[in-house]
């Protein structure tokens, strides 16, 4: 899968996620979040120069996913969507127009 497609898939999941009332958080099924994260990891280019920065962003994304708070009585988790968007934007910037 193309890296931008994988990033856009996660972005779409977040964009269409249900909001947690009275917060800036959204909720998603953990399995869908993990799957989208895995697709991004699998699609990353192996360019050595960018790999270290990409790994740092993926670690930050992983912390967001694993640290997401569970929504009681559901399989959903909740997290701050702006923080996730920041990571996705950084990944897009790292890819650059030459790799799109």
User: How many strands in all?
Assistant: 4
Structural class: alpha+beta
Count of the separate structural domains: 1
From the alpha-carbon coordinates, what is the Rg to the nearest angstrom?
14 Å
The secondary-structure element order is: HEEHHEEH
| Percent range for β-strand residues | 5-15%
Which ranges are low-confidence, i.e. pLDDT below 50, for 5 or more consecutive residues? none
Distance between the termini: 13 Å
Number of distinct helices: 4
* Major β-sheet annotation: 4 strands, antiparallel
Looking at the structure, what is the overall shape?
elongated
Average pLDDT, all residues? 83
Helix content: 55-70%
Which strands sit side by side, in order, in the main sheet? 1-2-4-3
Considering the chains and any ligands shown, give keywords for the structure.
single chain; four-stranded antiparallel beta sheet; alpha+beta; 100 residues; 61% helix; 4 helices
Task: Give structural notes.
With 100 residues, the protein is an alpha+beta fold. It has one domain. It has helices spanning 3-15, 30-43, 48-66, 81-95, and strands at residues 18-19, 25-29, 69-70, 76-80. It has a four-stranded antiparallel sheet. The mean pLDDT is 83.
């Amino acid at each position: 899968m193309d890296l931008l497609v994988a990033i856009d898939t996660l972005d779409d999941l977040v964009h269409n996620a249900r909001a947690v009332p009275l917060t800036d958080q959204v909720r998603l099924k953990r399995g869908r979040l993990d799957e989208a994260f895995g697709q991004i990891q699998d699609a990353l280019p192996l360019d050595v120069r960018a790999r270290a920065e990409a790994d740092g962003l993926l670690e930050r994304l992983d912390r967001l996913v694993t640290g997401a708070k569970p929504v009681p009585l559901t399989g959903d988790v909740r997290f701050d969507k702006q923080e996730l968007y920041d990571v996705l934007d950084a990944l897009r910037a790292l890819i650059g127009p030459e790799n799109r």
